[in-house]
Amino acid sequence: MNTVETKLRDRGFEIPAPAASLASFVPTLQVRDLVYISGQLPVKDGKLAVQGVVGVDLNVDDAKKGAELCLLNIIGQLKAHVGSLENVRCVRLGGFVQSESGFKEHASVVNGASDLLIYALGDRGKHVRAAVGCSSLPLGAAVEVEAIFQIIDAESPAERLREAS
Question: What is the pLDDT of residues 7-27, one digit of tens each?
Answer without folding.
Answer: 999 999 999 999 888 789 999
